[in-house]
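Lab notebook page, bench 4
Experiment: in silico fold of construct C2
Operator: M.H.
Input chain length: 321 residues
Purpose: comparison with the prior construct
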Amino acid sequence: MNIPHVPLGKSEVQVTPLIIGTWQAGKRGWVGIDDQEIIAAIQTALDRGITTIDTAEIYGDGYSEELVGQAIKNYRHQVVIATKVFANHLAYDQVIQACENSLKRLQVDVIDLYQIHWPSGSWKSPVVPIAETMRALVKLKEAGKIRAIGVSNFSLAQLQEAQQYGPIDSVQPPYSLFWRVVERDLLPYCVEQGISVLAYSPLAQGLLTGKFTLNHQFPPDDVRAKNILFQGELYQRAQAALAHMRPIAEAYHISLANLALAWLLHQPQTCAIVGVRNREQVLGNLPALHVRLRPETLAELDEISRPVNELIPPGAIMWNF
């Protein structure tokens, strides 16, 4: 399948509009994950032209990267790898070492996009000046270990501070019809600066597929049990919004998930990182790449999603960890 690639910021890296996310491949925080199904999902995506894969050292303490490394062994010439260094490894020497460890686990010579996963100080991590972290990332880029630098879960102010010390080609925020915090200031700035937005949780961790009922309960070891979108008034409003979205999806002859992904891909400079646990999910997401939503549909979805987003305060984090 011929899937067009788009530039990653101002770098020479080209990514696909749909990106395979592999948080669940690390298994921690997820249930019912099978290694071979994950590998098959990644290889199916690569065979169908989705060449960009996002992972992180923290996903299962490196297990996700190892699994990705196994999956891409015979595809390295076509795959674009994005991974992340966690908030507890942001001192200069730690960044250099973390990158080396990721390269080994992924079994590659270069990481196409290396991202700061969370700002320094997040999750009780030590506070490290962004200048020090960026100095290490710029050094890795100069050494040919990485090709582009990105940040994840950064506010606009944190992004702007990082930019003082080196080029930032992408940001990775949570972004979906049901989580539009990024539109308040970060997205307009990224459009102005030519920075790519790699949206994670584009289906709101499965909520936008419409498969969960109002009374659904997740096992306590499933990360979604702590997701605020699945709780209280927010969850009730999301279910009401989904009811309004169903006739729209039917009119376009697509699934609710495809409608939500297509909406996201219509936003400026935005790609969607979609987590998958098997090849069927990969194949199910592909039609979203070819959906063209009419302006009036985009306006209608904007209106439908508004009551959900009104309850999300600025600076909110999706999970009550």
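Observations: Residues 59 and 299 are 36 Å apart (CA to CA). The chain has a mean pLDDT of 96.
Next step: discuss at group meeting.
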